UniProtKB/TrEMBL annotation:
NCBIfam families named among the record's database cross-references: HTH_metalloreg
An example Gene Ontology molecular-function term: DNA-binding transcription factor activity
Xref: InterPro entries: ArsR-like_HTH, HTH_ArsR_DNA-bd_dom, HTH_MetalResp_TranReg, WH-like_DNA-bd_sf, WH_DNA-bd_sf
Name of protein: ArsR family transcriptional regulator
Cross-referenced PANTHER family: REGULATORY PROTEIN ARSR, TRANSCRIPTIONAL REGULATOR, ARSR FAMILY
Keywords: DNA-binding, Transcription, Transcription regulation
Amino acid sequence: MAVNKKSEFPESIQSFASFAKLLSHPARIAILEVLAERQTCVCGEIVDILPLAQSTVSQHLKELKEGGIVKGEVEGTSSCYCINWKKFEEMSDGFIQHILYVKQFKKENGSCC
């Protein structure tokens, strides 16, 4: 049985990787853009806007919600979602910091290979 070494890395790197994984599908990025543009809780409109089936949108919303960057509430037969801005900013700030850290080592004229 393989041992998961994820916990061996600093929390900031784990958070960076989690955020990158949440953003790793174009549908999730599109969903976040719809939620951000609306600036309010969005219910069934996401399915009308994106070229995806209801079940697919629901699965991606579930991933975003489990990752903490989307909040959702069930109201009768519909669910309403919005961005959890506090968590989103926390994760995106860490993401940007790690990207900038790596970029600082870029050589002016290319790479080593």
